[in-house]
Amino acid sequence: MKSTASTSDKILDIAQSLIVAGGYNGFSYADISDAIGIRKASIHHHFPAKAELVAVLVDRYTRQAAAGLQSLREQAASPADQLQFYIDYWRTCIENASQPFCVCAMLAGEMQMLPDEVASRVRAHFRNLAAWLTSVLQAGVEQGLFRLDKRPEEQAQMLMASVHGAMLSARALGDPGLFIAVVGPEIARLRTA
Amino acid sequence: MKSTASTSDKILDIAQSLIVAGGYNGFSYADISDAIGIRKASIHHHFPAKAELVAVLVDRYTRQAAAGLQSLREQAASPADQLQFYIDYWRTCIENASQPFCVCAMLAGEMQMLPDEVASRVRAHFRNLAAWLTSVLQAGVEQGLFRLDKRPEEQAQMLMASVHGAMLSARALGDPGLFIAVVGPEIARLRTA
DNA sequence: TGCCGCCTTCCTACTAGCAGGTAGACAAAA
DNA sequence: TTTTGTCTACCTGCTAGTAGGAAGGCGGCA
Once rounded to an integer, what is the mean pLDDT over residues B133-157? Predict the structure, then answer.
């Protein structure tokens, strides 16, 4: 419970939760201002323009995600566990409603009207995630843990789509349990055992 | 090529394409006004408030979708064909960019900040679609066309998530072909033959 | 047939409030 | 003393929404 977070980090934190709730056009500087008790102008001091704020935010998110996934690869025993930890992370986020949606999945929906500097970063996150999933699946196949119908790249795309679609369904139907009900069987099917 | 569409239909058409592009907060009465060459006030004559406009729009969409799916059930020979026609519909929409996203999937992302009258209708569409998929899968099992790992309800949720997730990936990565690359194998796997 | 009043649709002109963003003053830290 | 962070006060343009009027269609009625 450190309250040592810098102002700009606090701004990004609030902005992130607001984007998760309503997307790029669903929040304003005034919303952030209200949430952390600082004037609008002070937010502009840290992030002159909204597009820039969100670009930095997505950068941070992508970096955090990449670091998290990387450490998962190093720490988790097997590729099967790595996959399991990954979806458990999201299950927890969704079930306690702390962050019930991926920032980049949210922004991807608005892709067509996003500033370029944001859109390109969202795309990058999707590529990173697909690459991570591909390499985990690949490793799992080599260790005889997974048996895939398709090439690892395609199977990774299918899995990523399942995860994002499951988030959407859970939100649309107001049923957090739906996430794991959809994604669970999807990864169970990959296992050989 | 009938230009006999009523003004309120034209308003809904434009609003729908704007929502598909940018969500609930991503369009304004002025945008519609510009697109169909009518004053803002005239739009308010047909739809006094934005929440009402979108509620009517989602109602129309849900009705059209329900009718389309119903006629698919009646016309398409087998449950396997019904599923194939369903995803072919979306593949076409996405590939020619005519409507590269489901309105309700788009709005589902913004669920948390949608007016109640809209949110409840979006939820209804998700339930309808899940029910349709469930019944098609069920029929397919009874005719020995499909073999499912899970109960039809769960498998339907998994399939729906795949479809929405695939739309999102196709959009995020700017690759229309990704939709069918993800959804194709997903339904192929259900088939017994 | 022509006139009447009503209803629908669209318009111009307007409002209050919020959006993102700026200018410049002030205090404290470096 | 310069830099950093915050403030008050402000600007412009856009937001949803309103008031009220003009044009036309339509049914009734003499």
Answer: 97
CB within 8 Å: A108 and B161? no
Output the pLDDT for position A2: 39
Q: Which residues of chain A lie closer than 8 angstroms to B26, CB-CB?
A: 23, 25, 110, 113
Domain-wise residue ranges, chain A: 7-188
For chain B, say whether A123 makes contact (Cβ under 8 Å). Answer: yes
Closest residue by Cα to residue B23 from B111, B93, B95, B128: B111
In DSSP terms, A146 is beta-bridged to A191
Cβ within 8 Å, pair B181-A157: yes
| Strand D near-CB residues (< 7 Å), B 17-36 | 27-31
Q: Buried (b) or exposed (e) across A83-121, using 16+ Cβ within 10 A? A: bbebbeebbebbeeeebbbbbbbbbbbbbeebeeebbeb
Q: Which fold has domain A7-188?
A: Tetracycline Repressor; domain 2 (1.10.357)
The pLDDT, as a whole number, for residue A1 is 37
Output the CA–CA distances (angstroms, integers) from residue B184 to A140, B58, B101, in the order listed: 23, 27, 17
Phi, psi of A146 (to 5 degrees): -115, 150
